[in-house]
Write a structure and sequence with these properties.
The chain has about 300 residues and is α/β, with parallel strands linked by helices. Helix content is about 45%, strand content about 10%. The structure holds sulfopyruvate and magnesium ion. Pfam families: PEP_mutase.
């Protein structure tokens, strides 16, 4: 357990600098999706370089679908719980920037103030739907999204904070040229990196993007549907960051369902005890000893 049990052990600015160093040195940044302090800490404990404050996970953790129902303050408060629980950089999924141009600027102000290293906004129309919903995917006009990026950049205080512009061009079925044109425009508007999302069953779309992109700015991918795309292949393709956005929550759902089904079927918790974390383990991961030390 690190000092992060009491709060972040690194200054917010230095976490963003860590991301920038990795981008500059060509080190692949591996990022795990999370939705609260515990899931973020499990990602850090496993050895991930960074935590993705996933909109899908945060929404689901509230019992809601990822269709822009929660407001910025709720997403921010979840990101802050993650930020306080780990020492690695947090990259926040900020959806569309939660509205128009001014909302994008305000999003940058509040997330950066909270010490979040990376702010990611996507080029869909607010309200947005999760990228894997098969209907109602609508892209914002490219110039309008450029204005949101410019406004976010103008609101940014620390030069270290990373603004990631995410294009949903492939998600909307618009193809490589649209994805490239948009990403070039977004870098011109000030984005520090681009996230190229794809729901293809293989890595073809993102790899074809990489071949034409010529390393103009770091590229982030989210290999959810093309799950066999390895970290080594991503590195080989010149990708800078891979986000495993929701596998942690999916693992938890499966484990919890199976545990509760067994408890009801067997009439006691005895059969599941050997395969679930102990209360001692909960104490350890939540920093019980370190906190009690403060009272000694
Ligand atoms: C999220 O984790 O909320 C994302 C990634 O934005 S995805 O669900 O693939 O759209
Ligand atoms: Mg999202």
């Amino acid at each position: 357990m690190t000092i992060a049990s009491y709060g972040p052990s690194t200054l917010p600015g230095s976490r963003a600098a860590t991301l920038r160093d990795a981008f500059a040195n060509g080190r692949l940044v591996r990022v795990a999706g999370a939705h609260d302090g515990l899931s973020a800490r499990l990602a850090e404990e496993a050895g991930f370089d960074s935590v993705w404050a996933s909109g899908l996970e945060i929404s689901a953790a509230h019992g809601l679908p990822d269709v822009s129902l929660l407001g910025m303050a709720e997403y921010l408060s979840a990101a802050v719980a993650m930020q306080r629980s780990v020492s690695v950089p947090v990259v926040a999924d900020c959806d569309t920037g939660f509205g128009g141009v001014l909302n994008a600027a305000y999003t940058m102000m509040r997330y950066e103030e909270a010490g979040v290293a990376g702010v990611c906004i996507e080029d869909k129309i607010f309200p947005k739907r999760n990228s894997f919903v098969n209907s109602g995917q609508k892209l914002l006009d490219v110039d309008e999204f450029g204005r949101k990026l410019e406004a976010a950049k103008r609101a940014q205080v620390s030069s270290d904070t990373v603004l990631i512009a995410r294009t949903e061009a492939f998600i909307c079925g618009l193809g490589l040229q649209e994805a490239l044109t948009r990403c070039h425009h977004y870098v011109d508007a000030g984005a520090d990196a681009v996230l190229v999302h794809s729901k293809a069953v293989d890595s073809g779309e993102v790899v074809s993007f990489m071949k034409e992109w010529n390393h103009r700015a770091p590229v982030v991918v989210v290999p959810t549907t093309y799950a066999d795309f390895s970290a080594a292949e991503a590195q080989e393709a010149g990708i800078s960051m891979v986000i495993y956005a929701n596998q942690g929550m999916r693992a938890a759902i499966t484990a919890i369902r199976s545990t509760w089904a067994t408890v009801l079927a067997e009439g006691s918790t005895a059969p599941v005890e050997p395969r679930i974390a102990s209360v001692k383990d909960i104490f350890a991961i939540s920093g019980m000893d370190q906190w009690l030390d403060l009272d000694r």
